[in-house]
Amino acid sequence: MAEATVEQLRVPENLLDSSAADFLEAVEVSRQVRINTWGNDLLAYTPAELFALCHDPYEWYVVLVARNDSKIMGRAGIAMPLDDNTDLAHVTLDVLPEAAGNGIGRKLLEAAELFVKGENRKIVVVETNHPAADLEAAGSTGERIPAAQGGSDLPLKSREARFASNAGYALERVEQFSACTLPPPGDLLAQLARRAEETHQGAYRVHQWLDSCPEEWAADFVRLEKGHNEDDGDLGTWDVKQLREAEELSRLSGRHTIVSAAEHLETGALVAFTSISLLGHRDDVAFQDDTVVEEAHKGKDVGLFIKVANMEQLELHFPALRTLYTWNSPENQYMLAVNAALGYVGAGVTGQWRKDFNAAD
Fold first, then answer.
1. Are both 28 and 164 inside the same structural domain?
2. In terms of domains, do 82 and 19 share one?
3. Are residues 154 and 15 in the same domain?
4. Phi and psi at residue 133, to the nearest 5°
5. Residues of the chain with pLDDT > 90: what percent?
6. What is the dihedral of CA 310, 313, 317, 323, to 10 degrees?
């Protein structure tokens, strides 16, 4: 195979013009990679989704492509926050299976690092994906790469893990990736709702919304979101104004968000929420986003209470959905148990890797 060349992909004015051909080819590369990894394309961006991502006002998204002759063999997506964390860049690498092992991934990553350095970004985060079958094949013996957070690890036998490690990235954390088939069987949700109510003894009331948070709960909702981000080390400047801007951006892109939140009846404040996101251009898959429960209200099945309510709301508004995906920290045993009760099955893990250019220098 001839040596590949890397260049920045031009984002077309629209997806119907002939100039969109390269953009559509790059999208197809990513789709083929996800089919090869997970056995389906449910985690792949559609052309319209990636096009919207390239016009996100809160994040600058750049795509680099690796060509062999005229064919795109791989791509690197570079996401750079514009509001907070402006020293950070997330890089997603996709290389066609038939081109693996020819140095294309390394060349794309090096080009992406050079690009983000030129934009004064100091930290790069990349993700590796590990289906359950691959982890089983790797076995439990052999050298492991420990994560800095959470106590998990990945096998050095994994080609993806070796690639990231050899490129100078440190494994920050490993997350459990799970899938839930929809709709849930029988009266499962009703049974789990009763269990949660027996635990918390009617101390909470659920409030739900689609796409837009009611004004009466907006300040509480922002407080919970911001507190969760602070726990993750992202203080941010999140406020109600930015919430409304984000909601409008989602509306314009066709995306939907379903939220169920728990009001503590004694105080009248929201103390927990859970959200599910739906893509704007497909109706068969959704993604479980954050579930946040204030510390004082943990241990009372509040997380189960609101997740059951949100899945009921999901069925009501989007009956065509067939798969719900989620990611969880392996150490969050309560939430993993809740998800198992809801019907989630482990599909694999993802590794979050980090390189700090300041430390490297």
1. yes
2. yes
3. yes
4. -65, -40
5. 81
6. 50
Statement to judge: residues 159 and 92 lie in one domain = yes
- 220: tokens are 């509480």
Q: Considering only CA atoms, which of 282, 328, 279, 281 is closest in space to residue 307?
A: 328
Predicted confidence (pLDDT) per residue in 169-200, tens digit: 999 999 999 999 999 999 999 999 999 999 99
Exposure string over 182-213, b if 16+ CB within 10 A, otherwise e: bebeeeebeebbeebbeebeebbebbbbeeeb
Residues 14 and 161 in one domain: yes
Q: Are 171 and 24 contained in the same domain? A: yes
Would residue 333 count as lying in a domain?
no
pLDDT in tens, 34-63: 999 999 999 999 999 999 899 988 899 999
Bridge partners for 276 per DSSP: 258, 288
E strands, 42-166, are 59-68, 71-81, 88-95, 123-131, 144-146, 153-155
Instruction: For residues 245 and 135, give the distance between their C-alpha atoms in angstroms, rounded to a whole number.
Output: 41
* Averaged pLDDT, 74-99: 95
CB 165 within 8 A of CB 145: yes
Identity at 293, one-letter amino acid code? V
Helices then strands, counting H and E runs in the chain, come out as: 11, 14
User: Does residue 98 lie in a domain region?
Assistant: yes
CA dist 344 and 180 (Å) reads 4
Of 156, 145, 108, 128, nearest to 353 by C-alpha is: 128
- Residue 235 — pLDDT band, cuts 50, 70, 90? very low
Same domain, 98 and 202: no
For residue 271, the enclosing domain spans: 183-321
Are 249 and 310 within one domain?
Answer: yes
